[in-house]
Specification:
The protein has helices at about 10-15, 115-120, 345-350, and strands spanning about 40-45, 50-55, 60-65, 70-75, 80-85, 95-100, 105-110, 125-130, 140-145, 150, 155-160, 175-185, 190-200, 210-215, 220-225, 230-240, 245, 255-260, 265-270, 285-290, 295, 305-315, 320-325, 340. It is mostly beta strands and about 350 residues long. The protein has one domain (about 10-350): Tricorn protease N-terminal domain (Neuraminidase), CATH 2.120.10.60. Strands 14, 15, 16, 17, 18, 19, 20 and 21 form an eight-stranded mixed beta sheet that branches. A hairpin with a 5-residue loop joins strand 2 (about 50-55) and strand 3. The longest helix has 8 residues, at about 345-350.
Length: about 350
Amino acid sequence: MNTMNTRLPIFFGCFALGMLPPLRAADPAPGSSPADNLPPHIRQVTWFGERADWSHDEKRILFLSKTFGDAMELDLATGRVRNRTAHYSHHGYTRALYLANGDFLLSGPEQFDPKKPGEARVQCWLYVLDRSGTKPPVPLGTKCSEGPAVSRKRLHIAWTHVAAEYPDEMPAGSSRMLEADIAYEDGKPMLANQRTIIESKDLPFRCTMETQNFRPPDEQELTFSAYGHQGTDVCGVNLRTRKVVNYANAPGQYDEPEGIFPDGQFTLVECDKQNLKRAGYVDLWRLKLDGSGAYDRLTYFSDYPGYKASNPVVSDNGRFIAFQMAKSREAAGVGHGIFVLDLDLSRTRQR
């Protein structure tokens, strides 16, 4: 069992002390990385891994050891890391997320060809893993392209199909988003009340979709990435009316929503607004979900040549953001350690 650096248990204590160096780190030295010179409101909590997710009590972070790796769980108080998928054989996972009841939603391939990693990412299957850590995961019987969306309040998920997964059902180049409840029958999870949310043909523009987040507090809207539309845009679809809203609407800019605030007023965005160099050079921005296009930059990792910040998620109390350090030339989602940003300390420094 792996154990993280012993500095980790003082992580929250450092935040609480309110240390006051500059909000933004100094200009990067040649050859340095963002981790070498972090501002006081950001702390590194693992030195490997990617695609973090918060537990509902903000005490743990679920993450992947690597793309097509294991699901790991970090205890923030002790710094200990537990491998949650080591007790059975598998081909690795691309996503691991907490369900509302504490079980885990996993997404991974049935088989993996290392020569075709891109194909495996859009040909994953969804599973539920019991939080006890004593059972193998239960398949839900549906494929998932890239990341699913998970409700933080109820046993409900959304996910995406692309034509490559279901060529007999979908036109080439199209995508569709679906939603369903997760029901348990005799302790076994399964999908219930499944329905299609929207298909490519129903959109007012052409793009490939990926589910992102149910919008709090009522979860009547789902945010999604509109890949290939004006670069990539942050969009939302009303789950009742299927009306689509483009919240970014920034031609030539890369905007991918990742993580949403519990009041539903803002979403986090992987965005290249600072340099317009596309997805490999993004940082984390906060976008107001009112159609105003109001952005607020939160990280400066892309100021370091060859690096970016990506895959952020917001804790249920709205105070902390977990994200990863990534490299510009590597595949999307590949990470090199998990970091946590304290928004309260950040705001204190801005006053």
